[in-house]
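pinned: reference chain
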Amino acid sequence: MTPDDQGTNSPEAFHRAGGRRDSTASASGANVVAELGAVLDRSGLHAGLGYLNGRARFRFTGVYRFEPTVLVNECLYDRENPALDQSGTILQLPDTYCEIARAIGDVFATENAPADPRLEGHSARHTVISYTGMPIRLPTGLIAGVLCHYDLRPRLLPPQELGILRFAADYLAQWLGPSLCAARRNGTP
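pinned: its structure tokens
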């Protein structure tokens, strides 16, 4: 692990600090969101997720949409198989960490699920080992989905990237809107 992967820069440490971001983080987040917006408009959601994935060490970066009893994979970037299209995959809500992020209405993160007492008995605990998910909240306040990074082995998202994930989720809420159309998801503006 690198120094940024250790406890002092963990998502939990970010929250212990009250989730505060300094002005440098805000400026950095604004720059990243501007770059993300350009990638989304030019190449679509999959490319945008690839851009965000390149900023983290996680294998997967995805956007998941909540339906009444299930979670639908809108788009997933897999660092090891970037051409693989897994959109449309449906998961049962109780089996996902995305449901936890929605229930708390804020970021949910675990760097090592099998060692995380909050996940004792959770069905994904031994398959999705690390996860950081940020709710995508529509202007109405409704949490429509989650933007997340996850991996099958322990990973940690540095606090500055957690702030960027928050900015990106807010931007995606506007970019995707309440009615996501397939043409935009596939890169056609």
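why pinned: Confidence is low (pLDDT under 50) at residues 1-24, 179-189. The longest strand covers residues 70-78.
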